[in-house]
Amino acid sequence: MTMAPPLFLALALAYAGLTSLSLAMKRHHDQVMGRKLQPERVRYYRWPGWLLLALSLWVTLTVWPLGLALFMAVGLVAIAGLPLVFLLPYRARLAGRLAVALPVLAMLTWSTVALV
């Protein structure tokens, strides 16, 4: 099995998780969504963000042994945060759209490779 589809899925999940966590912050929520963040809705962004980061770790654990998987998960979170840092100030809406599109594309890629 090739390492590219699970690596892409773990990276996409890490990006989506970081984006969700950033949407729990007032400033970034205003930038991406174009409306004010209600204080009672913060948990609707925090919990999915942490869940997506945990799923990213789980994907790495299915591919690599524990030590390498933890190392890769931390590295993938750092790599996923880089485009988010550059997109939020300049193209905030694109950052939000990518958070939805990338995991879907990664799962389609992994399922297509599994069929072959």
Helical fraction equals over 70%
Helix and strand succession? HHHHH
Total strand segments: 0
How much strand content do the residues show? under 5%
Question: End-to-end distance, in Å?
Answer: 11 Å
| Rounded radius of gyration (Å) | 15 Å
Please identify the structural class as seen in this structure. Answer: mainly alpha
Low-confidence region ranges? none
By DSSP (H or I, 4+ residues per run), the number of helices equals 5
| Gross morphology | globular
Estimate nothing, just give the exact number of structural domains: 1
Overall pLDDT metric: 91
Biggest sheet layout: none
Describe this structure in words.
The chain has one domain (4-115). It contains 5 helices and no strands. The longest helix is centred in the C-terminal third of the chain and has 25 residues, at 66-90. With 116 residues, it is mostly helical.
Key phrases:
116 residues, mainly alpha, 5 helices
Helices and strands in order:
Elements: H1 4-23, H2 26-33, H3 43-63, H4 66-90, H5 92-115
Structure described in brief:
The protein has 5 helices and no strands. It is mainly α and 116 residues long.
